[in-house]
Amino acid sequence: MNSNTKLGKAVRAAVSELSHLNTLERDMLQQAQGLFQRLGVRMPLDVAPLVQPAIEDDQGDETLGEEQQQQ
Question: What are the angstrom distances between the C-alpha of 26 and each of 11, 29, 37, 63?
Answer without folding.
Answer: 22, 5, 17, 23
